[in-house]
Amino acid sequence: MHSTDSNTAPWIARKWKSVRITSALQGLVSGGGSWHDDELVSIERMGRYIAGTWSPEEGENGPALAGDASWVHLIGQVGVVALRAASPVTLPERREVLLNFLEMWARTPFADPDYRFRLGRLEGEGPFTVRDEHGSAFARWLPARKDRPYLEALPPGCVRPPHHELRYAEDCHRGWGSRDQLRCLVSLIRERGPMPWDPAAVVELSDAAGTSRPAAALVLAGNPGADSYYVPYLDADERTTLGFKAAELEAGRAELGVLRDRDRMALLADVLPEDPADLWEPGGLGRVAARTAEAWNAQHGKRPRPPEPTWQAALALDTRIPATDLCHLFLDPERAPLPPGFYLRIWPCPEEHRGLRTIWDVMGFPDADSLVDAVFTGLPWAYADLPAGDPVRDGAPEVVRMLRKVLAGGDSPAGVLRTGVMETGVLEGRTVSWRWDWLTDGTCDRMMARITAADLPPGRYESDPRACVPELVDEVARALGLAEDAAALYLQLLTLAVPSDRNVRRWNGWTPARHKKAAAQLVERGLVVEDGRPRAGRGLFLPGPWAHAAKPLPPMECGKARRLGARLAGGSGDGKVIHLPGLPGTLPELFTEAWRSSRGGEGPGD
Known about the structure:
By secondary structure, the chain is α+β, with helices and mostly antiparallel strands. The chain has 4 domains: 114-173, no CATH class; 181-300, no CATH class; 308-453; 465-599, no CATH class. Helix content is 44%, strand content 9%. The strands form 5 sheets. The chain has a 5-stranded antiparallel β-sheet, with no helix packed on it. Strands 13-12-15-14 form a 4-stranded mixed β-sheet. The protein has a two-stranded antiparallel sheet with strand order 6-7. Strand 8 (426-427) and strand 9 form a beta hairpin. The longest helix has 17 residues, at 284-300. It is elongated and about 95 Å long. Mean pLDDT is 85; it is low at 1-16 and 410-432.
């Protein structure tokens, strides 16, 4: 919590108070530079003006709209502020600001359900204020935006004739947050502290709405998509309360980018219980989660939730769309929604973009590079890095079908598709782009055939050679005098780009002790060397030159890198991976090729 001493300039003190207000209300109000230390007083004064208990001094034209007037969207939707104030994840200094806000709000007509409020826009320029027998109306002129947000307050039974400059106006939602509810909640928080946190409620919301668990946790904490000026976004204690790592919560925040400011308020406007004391009862947050799931599905439609291990695997991928959106692309390919923030990346935004609803509608546009990249990154990942029977993996063949359908609908008979990362075309029977070749030369078809053939037992991975090429594992074991586990690990080190200890144990279903035993046999036979190398995530390496790499590319043995089609920079000795395409074949093919190369005179890491 910031403090100032007697020597601090007054404007600095006001600035810190402004930061406290805007950070406490982040995602709900905008215009951080427009807020000052007396803005809560300004909102209350406007309420008193509406109620007729305050009048401006001579020469004043009514109360000013606080901040940039974005707070007016909280009218009828102040439940989101109340949930955030009750959340144990909210920092204490921000909670105090929120409690002060709710106490102020309870004293105004904004918490009176008998009042009717309308929001809109006025044409023209300059401020506008009126109070008469029809109620009150206000507009603030925002020169930077050349806009006049309009607020109309109507006491019971009143109807205001439309102002001649009124562009439009619509009724405000009237939801949770009466005077009694707000005062009761504030009193309970001050007496009991924040409501208890319930991880089971997070799981309930995640399952019911199809979100990731970190995203569900942020929503239930009253933080559905924080803006960048909320610093710290979440500190160590807050992350501990939620039970997630920083990277997981950052991914959850990116996922919630689908919510606009008004969506956030509408989502949580009515999820609190009629009696606020229910938040402190057993299952109280679970009941909030159930109401939140209904609101989420009404906004976005019911979506399947990816399995937790699959989401974690997607989180490790280098794609420019959130992990949950990548999973939804494979879980429901036909109706895969646009990822959050896509419209922000389309600049300028042509008229034909405005009606888009799914990623397939934009695949052929120049600004669809992140979507195309996600598809081409996700396909080999789903095939090689997810277990048989995983619903995301099972959706990959349909993703390929949809992609080819888009490509076949190009603007010219040649079927040309242009994006920021790919330019492809069929010209006199020839194709261009490495990505295009991978899709059309049979490599992709063979991978998808491996998925649809269902040759792997459920839960087994294609990256485990014991599951996809057991006969080759037997051959390696006989040739080198190894046990089955050691032979499988040797093939993985020969073939796979990232055979980290963590990945190998996941693919093979091994405990650390079983992994260690297999590794020890390879060391004993002199087939590998023990070492520590940056970003490798393992302690065993094939003999020979090593290729370093900068994120997100993985470092690996030079010989393996060449077999995987990587481009290397540097002369003799160690090199550097500067490009790595998708898998150049199915894993049975690649395991077999790597073994044949190692037996044909080429050193395993050369």
